[in-house]
Amino acid sequence: MSILIKDIIATLGATYLGTHPEEAVDNVSIDSRSLQNSSNSLFFALVGPNNDAHTYIEDLIKAGVENFVVNYIPEGCQDSANFLVVPNTLDALQQFAAYYRNQFHFPIIGLTGSNGKTIVKEWLNFLLSPDFNIIRSPKSYNSQVGVPLSVIAINKKHNLGIFEAGISTVNEMAKVEKVIRPTIGIFTNIGSSHDEGFKSLEEKISEKLLLFKDSEVIIYQKNELIDHNIQASAKKMSWSFDQEDADVYVYKKEINTDSASLQYSYQGKQFSLKIPFQDSASIENAISCLLTLLYFKYDHETIQSRMLLLYPVEMRLKVKNGINNCSIIDDSYSSDFQSLKIALDFLESQKQFPKKTVILSDIFQSGLSNEELYARVARLVVFNNINRIIGIGETISDFKELFANCITYKTTADFIADFENLDFSNETILIKGARSFQFEEIVQLLEEKTHETVLEINLNAISYNLNYFKSKLKPKVKIMVMVKAFGYGNGGLEIANLLEHHKVDYLGVAFADEGISLKNGGIKTPIMVLNPENTSFPAIIQHQLEPEIYCLKGLYAFLKIAKQKKLQHFPIHIKLDTGMHRLGFNEDTIEELVATLQGEETVKVQSILSHLATSDDLVHREFAFLQIALFEKMSARIMTALAINPIRHILNTSGISNYPDAQFNMVRLGIGLYGVSNDPAEQKYLENVGTLKSVISQIRTIGAGESVGYGRRFMAQKATRVATIPIGYADGISRGWGNGVGYVTIKDKKASILGSVCMDMLMVDVSEIECTEGDSVIIFGESPTVIHIAKMLGTIPYEVLTSISQRVKRVFYR
Ligand SMILES: *Cc1c(COP(=O)(O)O)cnc(C)c1O
């Protein structure tokens, strides 16, 4: 680009304040941090809700930028640069882009629709690139700002443009239309996204159609609303699955194991087309591409051979965790100069590590000579402070000398063979390559391998829930947290550590060995053992655990050992049976209990406790009050007789919620800490702690009449896409959750379980979900919740949580 300032002034109708209107600019910038800013840049000072670029102008002038389009001239900047003053800098950017676009006279494809724009754009780029030098919007640059920037990147070597336009409300499309002025319009899927900005679907459609105001053809899926809103003069090219009068009538769709076959008629002839996808969104997107190729008059063989090579378009610039504490930016499906600039700016914004490596393939479609292209790339690399370049490809290898600290390989295979000799650690790695280089293999090597099935524990949520229950306690009331059963399945030591950090007063475990492993892990908080066997008393004493004593026999056994070991005031906890009838001294043993403890110096009654049988069910309120009253009476008797003042406690989680007057000196919090309440109203206040996750191992499509799993308990009524997930009843997923009862969540959608849950695996229906092997699966967490699963299985959340087997790795995060 080279445009004279005076032409820009005329185009924008700007007020000019400066001295050099005869000068030209060769690039446009809106980002003060962009490393491409230079003396020949034209900087548009945009004003956003949180950011006013006018505030950077002074610094930009110091950095050498000379030309600005502004709403006003910032104080102190007068006379130090060329200023083009306009009423609205965003409008000016669009006007400039429209003016620039009009200098070119090649076909331009404009894409709009609610879904599929980026995919169709990338696929068309791939399908048409053997014959055209294409400029396309980078990433999903489809906004009011993104569209003009995309268009401004056109240069003289291009001969086809593909631009997408997304709008969120009325009146936006007319502006974008002037900038793109597409000659070919493609309307991709019209879903419901962004509906908030429109009064009706009709308004949304008619607004979107404004993009194609002057297009020579509009390609779309036949739909009455669209037909009705297209102006009569436009040439239409439509397709349909069910309307024979569409230009392309797809009358048959067959889903195979890894592809789909379409039969369609076009201009009186019938064709069959195979595409390497099965999901309905991809099929629709591929059909949009088919119509475009037909419009360009490609023959059927070329269309088929190119379509077979279509690839999944990942969202570009994905950040992933890498090996050796690296961070990976995956941009492994494209390599052109424009997108390299964007990727490098993105790399700059990811500031985790000062060290930066770029793995870069040969670059195609630049419209520049190789000398000029790689010289520019080298400058970019220096500007962006890249520490290391790994170049892969014949051409980039030839220009190795242009880069400092650069190694090159002729092929991706050569790089992979040398991988062991390269050091990657504590750095950000941008992986950017043209599709033909198959850099996804490099991504795989560098990506951190995570275990397939994990229970992720959100430690912040635990802290949050703890504080929620603490806030319900009266001043001075202590808190014991139950971490029995491996922290209700969530992991023992990690959670105990967190609770110790939060200074809880006591931890409670069910058996001595649970307490011992916490003590061995360094826990100092006192630990009460609910159900100590007499044989474990020596170990309890050795590890300074505190036993709950619930019967005379146990008391005598403990005292015997205590005397042998000459203990002094060893803390014990006296459990009273007030109605639960599980463990505890009942009323008629109190006398003997008191007599035995009278004057006993080896032990000390640290606390007296009981347990409510019905704290979660207000139907049994009266019974709970009876238990509380009995506890009060029995414990008072012991305290008076022994003249002691121990801690008293009777409330568990739902007791804390329902019987606030029975807190005594301590409460015992259990399931609430893990984010589960028996009360739906209270549930709203708790945060989900555990998310059980897995991945898809394999996907296949079966036909009607075929079955899934043991006993053929799922029979497909129609073609069904089946995903296998490596988690089964041996991991704690109940068989009752299979056979259509339960579901898992994939990409925020429900996938119901097909047939029986196996020992180590289960199968789910993903016919309506766009997913691939390796995609993440949620077994429980936010959805479905443990509470929902428990309800459907006729059990309680406690059982679901504690059933998750120890072989499932626990991963803790904040
Ligand atoms: C498990 C347990 C608790 C905690 O019960 P939640 O309902 O999980 O809060 C309290 N006291 C005793 C004796 C327990 O066994």
Automatic annotation (TrEMBL):
The active site is at K484, Y710. Signal peptide: none annotated. This is Alanine racemase. NCBIfam families: alr, murF, PRK11930.1. SUPFAM superfamilies: Alanine racemase C-terminal domain-like, MurD-like peptide ligases, catalytic domain, MurD-like peptide ligases, peptide-binding domain, MurE/MurF N-terminal domain, PLP-binding barrel. Pathway: Amino-acid biosynthesis; D-alanine biosynthesis; D-alanine from L-alanine: step 1/1. One of its GO terms (molecular function) is alanine racemase activity. Substrate binds at R582, M759. It catalyses: L-alanine = D-alanine. GO terms for cellular component: cytosol. Belongs to the alanine racemase family. Its cofactor is pyridoxal 5'-phosphate. Residues 689-813 form the Alanine racemase C-terminal domain. GO terms for biological process: cell wall organization; D-alanine biosynthetic process. Its EC number is 5.1.1.1.
